[in-house]
Protein: Phosphoserine aminotransferase
Amino acid sequence: MSRQYNFSAGPAALPEDVLRQAQAEMLEWSGAHASVMEISHRGKEFIALAEAAECDLRELLDVPSGYKVLFLQGGATQHFAQIPLNFARREQSVDYVLTGDWSEKAAKEAKPLAKVRIAASSAATNYDRIPPRVEWDLDRDAAYLHITPNETIRGVEFHEIPDAGGVPLIGDVSSTILSRPLDVSRYAMLYAGAQKNIGPSGLVVAIVRDDLLERCPKDIPKILSYAEHAAQGSMLNTPNTWGWYLAGLVFKWVKAQGGVAAMAERNRAKAELLYGYIDASGWYRNPVEKSARSWMNVPFTLPREELDAPFLKESEQAGLLALKGHRAVGGMRASIYNAMPLEGVQALVDFMKDFARRNG
Amino acid sequence: MSRQYNFSAGPAALPEDVLRQAQAEMLEWSGAHASVMEISHRGKEFIALAEAAECDLRELLDVPSGYKVLFLQGGATQHFAQIPLNFARREQSVDYVLTGDWSEKAAKEAKPLAKVRIAASSAATNYDRIPPRVEWDLDRDAAYLHITPNETIRGVEFHEIPDAGGVPLIGDVSSTILSRPLDVSRYAMLYAGAQKNIGPSGLVVAIVRDDLLERCPKDIPKILSYAEHAAQGSMLNTPNTWGWYLAGLVFKWVKAQGGVAAMAERNRAKAELLYGYIDASGWYRNPVEKSARSWMNVPFTLPREELDAPFLKESEQAGLLALKGHRAVGGMRASIYNAMPLEGVQALVDFMKDFARRNG
Structure:
């Protein structure tokens, strides 16, 4: 056994306790005499699992009544398309705030389906900040306003939910959900690909306000309609049952850690440790404005590009996995989601110090 | 440990060898120092896994060159919508042959997107047969002809691929893929939800001929375009990596069993044993025409409805799981996919004999 500290941006590390339970139950889950992957999603055993997972997530995020919680497929990217398909209206624009590659992609996928407006963008400064709210050019009559509360590639995070001026706010929280408390009531819809803080890839969790669901057109295929999925309890067709199961185990794990408030404390400490060292080093560099630095994804560069290869090789030898930065940015990136313990970040900082000393 | 014979229609039983390997590798897969769910789908380790799975499937089904093999999400139901979105043409109809509930659903989901024609249907006889090919009313100019080679609910299967008269033939092989040899060259597209003969739910395998891919419109969101998925090697966004991994293990298992020819022999023997007993019993009854009986799903009824509840209770006590028939049909259904051994069917027949003797 040599599991190592895994800084993968996603699919990302899962809590080891969760993996151990899944391992123990692989051949026989609960009293089913079969694995959880081998039973009907409509049977009472799986329905109980599904309901418990939803219930735990509602509790963790304190989801107000009047919101549906959905367990869907397709990755967040599919929902980049499904959101305008369901919620855009012919006469209205849909507004997007661009703070990195993922919000860009979300806007691009919406273009064939809606009148996309860019309400704000920090592209001009290489996505190193959140554009100040006062400079946003919002359309008061927009069908919705879309933001990406955390950008995994650039490592840029909204630390406050922006005022959407009365327009329904939709947030892609794939890489920040469950990392800290979240005021769901400020959003009309939240959605998250599971493969960072929730579970394995292939599952999407969506939290949608009832009034938004009323907009879903009746003349689209049912499988693309959020209202239909909501009406069928996310069982319009066979869901990703393994993903739903693992998500349920992760929710229980987060609760056992003390919930999202405790995760926030831990995540703040991890981020402060890593950014603190980067800034103090004078050698490594993170390009993001301090007020917008992500707690989850920390990109950093070395003083000279030719040091990247040895850094990656030696960090891997030191048991620190998947530190290579995204090809769009270069350098390194440490993704430090919920499942990464403080000790992992400390081990990374220790390695970085040593590497800088030897190569400085 | 008390895994039992599992007759679930889907998500269905997986080969125990596959589950044991997944269990052993749950915390550390290959040399990754992490589970297969915790690594980047774009890293060389996962790419190698993905390519091996595709390669094994191509070998198993003898997929000709000129076809792309895709690993997608959304369940077959999502593809009920994606198929017309990608392949219908404004002026052309799309033809559907209805042989049960799943082909009905496929046609329904296509309606908002294309001019759907029903070329043939056995609804009038309660989907107890395949409508004879000579009676089909095909549109020679249809954009495609859609069939469902096996219907899980009614237990109706095409034992020969019908002549599509030059129209591109599309088949939903969710519940029959890998159960027997399949002449891929007769189809323009095949697709299958994984949760019967391939792996866990949340994964769809599609095999699409290149000329069909050229039809995909450029003005739809990329995530809904088969051509875009093909161009990106099914990694347009994060795929269901766990599903892909398990599918790869199942493909290796099928190869180790002797491939699809060996599976066909075994499946034929299982089906003959069960139908043979049902017919000989004079007590149980299967309503499907003999020439169209499914090798994978065997619905049967008891002489009196009030015997259903005791049959289900006692069969479960005897270690025979999930025999309840679909609510649309009633009675019982034994799904006997690849992972069900002959011994499981024998155990079912033994139980059925005993139950009939005691209640006859």
About this structure: The longest strand of chain B covers residues 115-121.
